[in-house]
Amino acid sequence: MGGQTTTTQSSSQQSQTQPWAAAQPQLQRLLGNLGNIDTGVSPAQSAAAGALNSAAQNLPSFAPQITNTANTLLGGGQSFGGVLSDAYRNLQGTLAPLTDPARLNPFNTPGFSDAVNTLKSDITNQVNDQFAAAGRDLSPGNSYALARGLAAGIAPTIASQTNANASNQLAAANALFGAGNTTASGLTGFAQTQLGNQLQGAGLAGQIPGLLLSPAQAQLVAANAARSMPL
Fold first, then answer.
1. In a domain, 197, yes or no
2. Considering the domain boundaries, does residue 140 fall inside one?
3. Helical spans, DSSP H, in 100-139
4. What is the dihedral of CA 21, 24, 25, 28, to 10 degrees?
5. Does residue 208 form part of some domain?
6. Which residues contact residue 177 at a Cβ distance below 8 angstroms, ignoring those fewer than 6 apart?
7. 5-35 burial, b if ≥16 CB within 10 A, otherwise e?
8. What is the pLDDT of residues 169-218, one digit of tens each?
9. What is the mean pLDDT of residues 42-59?
10. Which of 73, 114, 163, 184 has the highest CB neighbour number within 10 Å of its CB?
C-alpha cells in the first residue's frame, strides 16, 4: 500500500518442428542425380533426327502427275463423240444412194449385163429353134413365146440382183456404223482404264511418305524412350 512497489517477471518459449527432415536425405540424393543428367540431345536422338530429315528430303513429288490427273477428271476425260458422229455421217452417206435408182440399177453391177445377155441369147436360141423345127419360125406365136421366155428368164435375175445390191449396201452401212460405235466405246474404255491407273498411282503415291519415313520415326521413338528411362 502507499509507498510499496511490486515487480512481476514472465518468460516465453518458442518451438520449431521439421516434418520433412526424414525425407531430406532422399530428396537431396534425387536432386543430385537430376543435376548429373545431361539434358542435351543424345547421340541416338541425333542420329534418328538425321535419318528422319534425310528421308523427308528424299521424298519424291508426284504433285505434277496428280494435278494433271485431277485436271483430266475435272475436264470430263477424253471425248470420242467425234468418232461416233463421223460413223453416223458415214451411215447417212451410205444409205442415201439407196433412194437413187441409178445406184441400185442391176445393170450397173459389174458382169451383170454380160450374164443377162448370155441368158437372153440362150432363151432366144431355144425358143426359135423349137419354132423353126415346127416350121413356125418368125410367126406371131414365135414372137409371143420368145417374149414370154425372155421375161420369165430375165426378170427374176434382174429383181434378184437389185435386191442383192440393196442388201449389200445396207449391210455395209450397218457394219460401218457398228464399227464406228465399237471404236468409240473401245477408245472410251481405254481412256477410263488410263484414268483408273492414274488414280491408283495417286493412291500409291500417298503411301510413299509413310513407307519412307516410318523407319526413321521408329528409330526416333526408340531413342526418345531410351532417353526417358533414367527420368
1. yes
2. yes
3. 101-104, 112-133
4. -160
5. yes
6. 87, 88, 90, 91
7. eeeeeeeeeeeeeeeeeeeeeeeeeeeeeee
8. 888 888 888 887 888 887 888 778 888 888 888 887 788 788 778 888 88
9. 81
10. 184
